[in-house]
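Researcher: Please generate the 3D structure of the following complex. Treat every line as part of one assembly.
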Amino acid sequence: MVSIKDVAAEAGVSVATVSRVLNSHPSVSPDARARVLAAVETLGYRPNAVARSLRTDQTRTLGLVISDVLNPYFTELARSVEEAARALGYSVIIGNADERPDLQDHHVRTLLDRRIDGLLVSPTDGGSPLMLEAARAGTPMVFVDRWIAGVDVPVVRADGREAVRDLVRHLHGLGHRRLAIIAGPAATTTGSERVEAFREALREHGLPLPEELIGQGDFQAASGRRVTEAFLALPEPPDVVFAADNLMALGALDAIRARGLRVPQDIGLAAFDDIPWFVHTDPPITAIAQPTGELGRAAVRALVDRIEGRPPESVTLPARLVVRRSCGEQSPENSPA
Amino acid sequence: MVSIKDVAAEAGVSVATVSRVLNSHPSVSPDARARVLAAVETLGYRPNAVARSLRTDQTRTLGLVISDVLNPYFTELARSVEEAARALGYSVIIGNADERPDLQDHHVRTLLDRRIDGLLVSPTDGGSPLMLEAARAGTPMVFVDRWIAGVDVPVVRADGREAVRDLVRHLHGLGHRRLAIIAGPAATTTGSERVEAFREALREHGLPLPEELIGQGDFQAASGRRVTEAFLALPEPPDVVFAADNLMALGALDAIRARGLRVPQDIGLAAFDDIPWFVHTDPPITAIAQPTGELGRAAVRALVDRIEGRPPESVTLPARLVVRRSCGEQSPENSPA
DNA sequence: ATCCTCCGTGTAATCGATTCCACGAGAGGT
DNA sequence: ACCTCTCGTGGAATCGATTACACGGAGGAT
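Model: Done. Output below.
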């Protein structure tokens, strides 16, 4: 591999000068600059990012640890994060935790070992010692989507409270009264918050949320299936099932189908997180859409602010309800006048 | 940040000894080893991967450049690649090319600058000079899914020829005669191969593949929509549309829906690449499934073989047809006796 | 007792960059 | 004509690891 020394030799200058040209330092003569550039060209020289990082103590790399790449929501988030980071001259290394705390720790550790400049995390659990320690030690860090309470780290997320309220109003308007939820792990903020928002919205309509209508899922399709089967086996099954993420909604659809039931005639279904496929499922699924792209961009902005010494800002964006047909059609008597 | 020097000081030994302990070099006394380990523990020392890479000239990192992360097929591929790499002690940096040659080049360049140990590529186009140059220069490289002809690089991919033949037989058995295809970019191997396989399979049944039934797509949903609209506007529209990837199938479904037509009654739909969502679309979509996980594992195996000096192997795995309902139901008279 | 090995350890070179500091040349002021 | 200042440049230290080499001491062989 050709190094800066080779370039220096070829151009007849010192390595210092080559470095100066490459970093567009002002005090280099036009002549030297030209010779260096020519040498770079003929040798096909590319600076070694590893060496540069060692010296400058910055990698211009961001780490992104997400809970599950196979979840389209996170895929899209990852994509927008990469895009935003690239625009600011940063690369992104993605670590997929697969909803497993041990894997999450593995990635955080590797990322830290690689001396990434900052970390974007969507924690799978309440927070491993490793991550808390890193945050305390001053690693620039931003939580995205999910967060951990009691840590002084900016959070970029969507607030679904209002959208959940809209959803419940929609369901109530459709005549549904017995509403169930497939919750995410209580250790995740999104897991507990969505249940809370749901419960609160129900209360506003004077509806209860009994224990048997709260199913404990883990944001994976299989758990959605399992919980839904339990709902359906109830003496009095729910009118509608609200899944706290899109994968569990998929599992719920499976379970409903397996029972030979139809959506929405026999039971309604709604999901948190909207994805392109929901338009094409049978039936199209009513969902709460997060501004994923904006979330990714805001997270990168906050992290880079933090890295470059500017005060980072926590950001909360509203989610919104997208009504489709999976909870029943608007009939004349309950449509808005 | 605590460095190896701090550990050496704390343990009362030289940095060489610390390094030896950390790399489990045999000649270290039990006493010294214990003291070093203790020091590592109390200081919370973690070796700087950047420095180590500079010295050893290996990063234990693989680069993966894929055409489109949002495509579930590639997401799954990326996931299996990461998994397999992790098992072998490698990290993976993913570069998303978004089907854009310039972005692909950007990622290849950054990855090379970071001195990744090897590169896994699914080229968006016929091959940029940059990539060919890297291959020639000896960068360990393996093509996955798509490849570039005339380059001495192992290829790990699925062969869909047989599955396409099965598909056409299935369609023919259902009475469909006018079959159309939404092709991928001709510059990609998967783009041209799938059309070829389709054409050949049609020939076996004495069916033609006229120009007007070959639509040019780019593996993105929008192009599937556009091409399908054109098909539907034909004086004699096709009986079935076969999309060369799942995203274009999604677009096709959109277009068909927008025309107010029903699948499969008015027109059939099939896709290359099977994904979980196809089970839940309306109707469930008949597709050709690739052994994605196995593909990812084989690709990593080949690349790591190449990196570690063993002869790498090209691998071709069979794809298989998964029949669902999007091309029509099996009716009594054409069901297998 | 002497010599040779081998083992554990430390010193220092090295990887490829960046950057501080010193130095010489030329310009400009007096 | 001399001093000063600026500018372009090179030498060398530095980042944090790994590793070749040297060295001293212990143990075994003769």
